[in-house]
Structures are given as structure tokens and as C-alpha cells.
User: What shape does this take?
Amino acid sequence: MTRNKISIIGAGHVGTTTAAWLAEREVGDIVLVDIPATGDMPKGKALDLTEAGPIWGYDTQITGTTNYEATAKSDIVIVTAGMPRKPGMSREDLVGTNARIVQSVVEQVVSRSPDTILLLVTNPLDSMVYLAKKVSGFPRERVLGQAGVLDSARMRAFIAMEMNVSVESVWAFVMGGHGDEMVPIPRYSTVGGIPITDLLPADRIEAIVQRTRGGGGEIVQLLKTGSAYYAPGAAVGKMVEAILKDKHMVLPASAYLEGEYGLNDICFGVPVVLGRRGIERILEISLTREEKEELQRSVELIRKTMSMLPL
Ligand code: APR
Assistant: This one.
């Protein structure tokens, strides 16, 4: 049986955390690419992860390299290359630097893997997915971004803490851009299938919504030197697993919209069905007037960032 080939561009915090998650679950063999100023960092990290295999019992092959040739014919390519933010920065502040990096990464990847699926993680996320879509020329099924799985996981964690229940009993629904204007939707967020709007007072729900919106910034403030990577790595791992195992899993993702939710020519967080072809379907739900207004604010923030892209 041929194994899946997963390339991860950017062997930093998010890239290697994702690699560890995927290696342990034997989702596919992994190629880690980075361009360190000195030393052979990707090779070192790959060897370190390989040496964890006997302990956890995985046979995943992990290669670390500075050479894109090793990524040829990847089934999926995860792009985490780029700068993380520091305290006081918004994700949007990263657009100039990270757009240059993502553009060059995508060019190098797609020439070697023309049939691959591109999964973007670099921020500002929705604009980077848009850039990757335009630079690759890929159909929209094969270009998507990780944001909603992370944002909804944060919301799930906060709901579980508030109610003192298992995180497994909690589901949360977050739409929109991966910025502080994201749109958590409490009436579709549930504990044991019951909407939290039936279980918690409005002020506690509002506090959970605000903490979810600022969830990334909360970690940046605590770390001081960079941004989150354990939960982002797990979120990417979940999406890759859904795609490569062809699970038809419904997850939120940043997707290129062609009329859905009344939006065109923008990448935006929506519920999608993920399978071996990438995005198999986009699910449309009806929204209240207030939710639509919140989505519109999120759209405006993304469009402003998109206007700074070198396209
Ligand atoms: N090609 C390959 N790798 C690159 C390139 C490039 N052109 N440019 C930068 N990198 C690498 C860096 O060398 C670094 O190892 O990307 C890696 C990024 O790792 P970290 O600095 O640890 O950042 P990380 O926390 O992983 O975040 C990466 O994901 O969540 C987002 O906002 C976050 O944009 C950031 C990205």
C-alpha cells in the first residue's frame, strides 16, 4: 500500500507540533522543509521525531530538508512558514512579511506537486489562503485554511471550564475570519446537544464569546516570544486526518467563496465537508440579522488586509 505523503513547510513551532501529532497517528510519511539561517534545523527536528517512534510505536518516515525536491508529489502540503506575532501585534500586522514568504513557498510547492491539496496556517490566515489560491491557480476544493477548528476548540475549552463538563460533551460553532472579528455562534454551540443559550446566562456566554475572539492574543500575551502552537498543531492534524482518511468530516475552514453567504472572491471561515478531494461541500446555514452584521464586520477586516496583498 502506498503511504500518504505530507509536506510541512516551516519547521517552527506549529510545523513541528503538527508533525508530532501526525507522526504518532501514522497518517502519512512527513517531509519537513525550512530555510534556517545556519545549521540543519529541519533535519535535526525530523531525526528527533523519528527517534520518538520506538517509544510511541509509530513507523512514520520523517524527512527534514531545506530542499523542495523532497516535497514532490505530496498528497497534502501544510504551509506554516512565516512570522508569528508578538505582544501588541494583530495577525493583520504580519501581512507584508508573510505574503512574500507564502507566495514563494506556494510557487515552489505547486510546481512539484500540481495535484496536491494546500492547507494554509500562516497568518493573517484568510488573506494567505486567498493568496495561495491565486498564486497556485488551483480549484477551490484544493486550497483551504486552518482557523475554525482552533477557534472552536478554544470556545469548547472555555465552555467546558465554565460548566465543569468534559470537553468531549461540548461542541462550538465559530464562523468568519481568523481575526478578532471572528463570529462565535452560541445558539449552535452545545453541551450534550443542548444549545448553551439554554444552559448559561447571557453575560457568561458573552464572556466566553469575547475570550474566544481574543484567544490567540491571550496566548501571545502569556508567551511573549511568539504565538500558540499546541492547539493549532492539533487543529491542523485533525483536518489532515479528515482529508487523507476521506472521512467527509464537517469542520470549519477558510474557503474561497463563490456566492455562498452572499460573498464572492474572498476566503472566509465556513462549515465545510472535508474528504480526500479537499473541500467537498460548503454548508450554508441561515443567520440572524445580528450574526449577519457581525460577519460583515469580519468581511471588512479581511478585505482591508487583502488590499495589501501583492496581487
Ligand atoms: N520557507 C520555509 N520556511 C520558512 C520560510 C520560507 N520561505 N520563511 C520562514 N520560514 C520558517 C522559519 O524559519 C521558521 O522556522 O517558518 C518557521 C516559522 O516558525 P515559528 O517562527 O516557530 O512560527 P510558528 O509559531 O510556527 O508560526 C508560524 O503560523 O499560526 C501561524 O501566526 C503564525 O504565521 C505564523 C505561522
